[in-house]
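quick one, 326 residues, struct below
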Amino acid sequence: MTALLELKNLKTHFQRRKTTIPAVDGVDLVINKGETVALVGESGSGKSITSLSIMRLIPSPPGKIVDGEILFNGNDLVKLSDNEMCKIRGNDISMIFQEPMTSLNPVLTIGEQIIEVLMYHQKMSKNAARQKAVEMLELVGFSRAKALIDDYPHRLSGGMRQRVMIAIAMSCNPKLLIADEPTTALDVTIQAQILDLMKELSKKYDTSILLITHDLGVVSEIADRVVVMYCGQVVEEASVDDLFEEPLHPYTNGLMGSIPSLDGDVDRLYSIAGTVPPPEHFPVGCRFAPRCPHAFDRCRNEAPALQRKGSRSVRCFLHDDKEATV
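---
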């Protein structure tokens, strides 16, 4: 497979007075052409900051990419100027945000917001861009696209607004689509429709997808590979089948255990003890050790490295050859 996007030792830190906050701390990630990769973890794990770093949308100050590479088609996005990044955003790399109402401009019609993207990136005339906007709205499932194009976002339901966001994101045939919790605010039926639509458009345009979510049910529906993040680091990476069949990291095990099941009679769902610590208070050793039921002395004093285990990776001393007897 050919790598489309490759993160190498990505570090994004924030400065708060005299405190450095390592929100993303040495992330390695590969997305191949035509592949869908899910980035999962609890709130505060660093998923969204990773995606904003890829798009070079980290507010500076207080945030800054302090180390690492973001290789897109072999070019390091970290080294590009703001003008060069503007040509890539919305064109080669598009992003769908969690809440479309905060992403869509309330004083512009749906059509104006799609037309603007097409005129800027594709250099289309206004008439050609309007026709393309209608086609995109039809593609994402609107039967009355010609009438909808002159509506304002507040007149649409949450699911319809999310479809509009997908139409805008896919209008320039991007090579990579970043979807940050695209179904969180939607009911279950609409969630399924949005996921099916994303899969369909990915195949149609051969677009790679980076799906950011905490919902493992969504992951099982759409992803080829899964990357699990915790406290700004990747703790496990595997194919979706391998991860669901045999999660290696205790944190991944905890996430799996918290999924509701239709089988069996359970009064109370499992939950991982404690909460994700804030970045300024990350533990010295393994960052999951204070919440881990398997933690031992080495975990509390030494930080484990991400190591390969066959076709997958895991950051845990339980899978270190040195601890084979533990």
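Residues 102-172 form one domain.
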